[in-house]
Each structure stands twice: as structure tokens, then as C-alpha cells.
Write a structure and sequence with these properties.
199 residues, two-stranded parallel ribbon, 9 helices, globular
Length: 199
């Protein structure tokens, strides 16, 4: 996840991945030692309790959607209103993290609406059902602008489930070529405009 709060809004609308959003939110809070219970609605508390220690396979297909306003009490209408959530989201936002000095290979698929039943987000755009094309483009551009060598590829619209294995078939030769001493290729300059990672 490039900018996790975008994934909360996007993947949370898809029946396949919505439960994984709840699992990720619960896991991130646990990893940072945060107690979300003062901020949660009763249904939100049930989701968090159900997702403790759950792995991805068991979280898939558990909810039709998980929206912020269903999980959090009305006095906390956005992540900005919950200090521990805001801190975790900022700390895990790759657009706020230091830029790597080593070459990067980034691959991203679309097709989330057809393949994973996650609707296209009205402002964040399409993705693979979990990850957003615009966020990944934004990350590639962020790295390119800082001088990192990036090879960014957009895969066919095969959705998240199939994009992982497809990525592996492209990543292994890329890594092997680096170990063989070949210079990393760059697609910087041809990456389409992406989502903002900082505002």
C-alpha cells in the first residue's frame, strides 16, 4: 500500500477485500500499540475484535464493504480526527518516507472492478481491487523526481489476485539481471501522472 488511507477508501468498497481493510487497520493499530476502542462504533468494535490475529485468506469476503463512518463514531469523521490513526497512516505513507537510493522495479495492475468487484473510486481512480494505479504511479514519479532509477510497468487489467504471480515472473529476471551486473533500466519520464501522496 503506497498511501494506506487511500486503500481504506478504495478497497473498503469491494466485497472481496473489504475484510482485509479491517484486518489491516486492526493489525496496524496493534503493531503501533494503539487502542482504537474509544473511537469506534459498536459495529467497529465487532470488526476489530473479529480481525485480531486473522490472516488475509480468512479476512477475504467477510464484508460487503467497510466504510469509515460505519467503523468510527460520528465525532471522528475522518482519519485526521483520530490522532493514533493519523500517526500510523503518515508513518506508513511511502510518499512521506525517504527515497531509496537503489533501483526499483514497480508493477501494478488495474481491473479491480471486473476482476475483484471493487468499484472504481470516484476521485482516486482504478486499481487492482486493493492497490490503486494512481498511487503507484505517484510513488514511481516521486522516486524518479528524486533521482532513483525506476522501471514502472502497468500490467494488463488482471486484478490483485493474478497481478502478484504476474509480478513475480517479471521481478525475478529483473533481480537476476541486477546480480549479473547489468544496469537497471528506467522508465522515468514516461510514467503517467498519479495521485498525490501528501495532500
Amino acid at each position: 500500500m503506497v498511501r494506506p488511507e487511500h486503500n481504506l477508501a478504495y478497497a473498503g468498497e469491494g466485497a472481496k477485500w473489504s475484510g482485509v481493510v479491517g484486518m489491516a487497520l486492526t493489525g496496524m493499530a496493534a503493531a503501533y500499540g494503539d487502542d482504537l476502542s474509544p473511537y469506534l462504533t459498536d459495529p467497529g468494535k465487532k470488526v476489530v475484535a473479529q480481525m485480531v490475529g486473522v490472516k488475509i485468506d480468512d479476512a477475504e469476503n467477510t464484508y460487503d464493504h467497510l466504510r469509515w463512518e460505519e467503523l468510527f463514531r460520528p465525532e471522528y469523521p475522518t482519519p485526521d480526527d483520530v490522532p493514533p490513526i493519523r500517526a500510523v497512516l503518515d508513518d506508513t505513507n511511502m510518499g512521506l518516507a525517504p527515497v531509496p537510493s537503489y533501483p526499483y522495479y514497480i508493477g501494478q495492475s488495474g481491473g479491480g472492478a471486473d476482476q475483484q468487484k471493487t468499484p472504481v473510486h470516484p476521485t482516486l481512480g482504478d486499481g487492482d481491487g486493493v492497490m490503486l494505479l494512481g498511487d503507484t504511479r505517484g510513488l514511481a514519479q516521486y522516486y524518479c523526481d528524486a533521482g532513483t532509477t525506476v522501471q514502472y510497468e502497468e500490467y494488463p487489467p488482471i486484478g490483485h489476485t493474478y497481478a502478484g504471480p504476474y509480478w513475480a515472473t517479471q521481478m525475478v529476471p529483473w533481480v537476476n539481471a541486477r546480480f549479473a551486473g547489468q544496469a537497471a533500466p528506467s522508465t522515468c519520464g514516461s510514467v503517467s501522472a498519479g495521485n498525490s501522496l501528501t495532500d
